[in-house]
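Quick one: structure tokens for this chain, please?
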Amino acid sequence: MLTEETGKAFFEEQSFTGIAYDDETGEVVGMYILHPNNVGRCGHICNASYAVRRDLRGNRIGETLVTHCLKTAKEMGFKIMQFNAVVRSNTYALRLYKKLGFVQLGVIPEGFRMKDGHYEDIVPHYCVL
């Protein structure tokens, strides 16, 4: 859990933070963070993480966030977007990434530890920007 202090530091470290608001209520409905996936000779590859408010999933907010993120990453000079840890049970994300032209790299068995302690496979992806 982030505190106000640690949250401020975390978001300031990102290359970009995108926030989606409901036009009518002004409430935050989703967000993403964008940053390099690595440094040095791999610094042209970026990574992002997304969050959509649980009660609003299925309203294409995630698609809007990912599409905006890809555009922003390209404008910032990144060449490739790489997702290291797409959990195999996240079927909505997997379907969206396929729709947007991401390439699946394979499967890493039990690569992600869930909150309850069990492990799930991860499916890395990339997209040329």
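The domain at 4-128 is CATH 3.40.630.30 (Aminopeptidase).
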